[in-house]
Amino acid sequence: MKLQINESQNIEFKQSWKDEYIKWITAFGNSDGGKLYIGVDDNSNIIGIDNAKKLLEDIPNKVRDILGIMVDVNLQISEDKEYLEIVTDKYPYPISYKGSYYYRSGSSTQELKGAALDKFLLSRQGKKWDGVPVPYFGIDDLDPFAFKLFREKASKKKRIDAEFLKENDEVLVDKLHLKEGDYLKRAATLLFAKDPQKYVTGSTIKIGYFKSNSDLVYQDIIEGNLFEQVDKTMELIFTKYLKALISYEGVQRVESFPISELAFREVLINAVVHKDYSSQQTIQISVYDDKLLMWNAGDLPPHWTINTLMQKHNSEPHNPTIAYPFFLAGYIESWGRGIEKIVEESQKFNGLIPQFRWLNGLWVEFYFNQEKGLPNGLGEKLGEKLGETQQNIINLMQINPKIAITALALELGISTTAVEKHIKKLKEQNIIKRIGAAKGGYWVIIAER
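^ that's the sequence the OP posted. Answer follows.
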């Protein structure tokens, strides 16, 4: 007998009980909740356990004593085989197992460490990275020029009371929600500090011009506050890095660039506002003769995919404290329409839609002509060779390189056996390969682009 479900974000199977599985319960509680089945193998087959009634009493007591939470343990019977269903709710506060924190990612349980742990603990307190107070950083460390720039732009957009803009810098900081108690927030260091990079490592933008992936011709690193970075990057890209095509209308000289200035500006602002600054990695812009690529470190909101971004969606800024002044200054025109605006402007400009993919952050790829465009993230010739299911498998792997076969099956609405057959064919054609073990490894797309 089989359960009519597969392992997933919220489901885990174990053939027998071990006390170390309490960490799986921890992960469910720290994520969106879930169910742990004891007496079920990895293929959903019910194999049963002999000590079900004893575990009915032992497991809730152990979980309560070790984690300090309550779980429901239910006895299930199928064809005279007993197995257990352990139901864990999502908890509003962080749960640790022997001093460590675990989280559910896809169908695997992972220990949270470093920046990921910091982000998780902040989220359970209802805070974001940019809203954390910063000690040893005060009003004297703020740059009057940055406030002057903000006032000029905000005055034109009229999204903030003009009387507030006349207040001194200290009052304005408070009006912009950049202060908590006696401390300024991290967002203030990036928006208004005299030396933002002193407080946030990697809070820069790097631009490089490449003849090939290994042949860097020249580069620039843009520092300063975030408003300055956007303005300087726009100037450099359209005066130094992109070659304008020159034409004439009568005696008037006309310059035409290979990509939409409005679309690129929207991509750039989205990168600056939504970047995961805790990663300490710079925004990277790579310019070639035929394309421009931008990469930005970050994570999608839970349960989001690239498809979510491409559709109408709610605004969930990664850095809301940074986003608010950007909105008031007119850099952000509306909430939740960034991708939509990029697509619209690009279509109007030259009919070419930028490509979006997710790999440890968001890649946005602008191609300068139709021949170099890659619809659906695949080369045109490659796309013609593959069926729709295989193209969808590759798209899902690009969005989440660690995606499990069971998750692919759920997304595509087909069996795991069918997914495995498609993956085998893709491997034989040298289109994809697997790096690492079944759990903890990841997919790499190796087809010629």
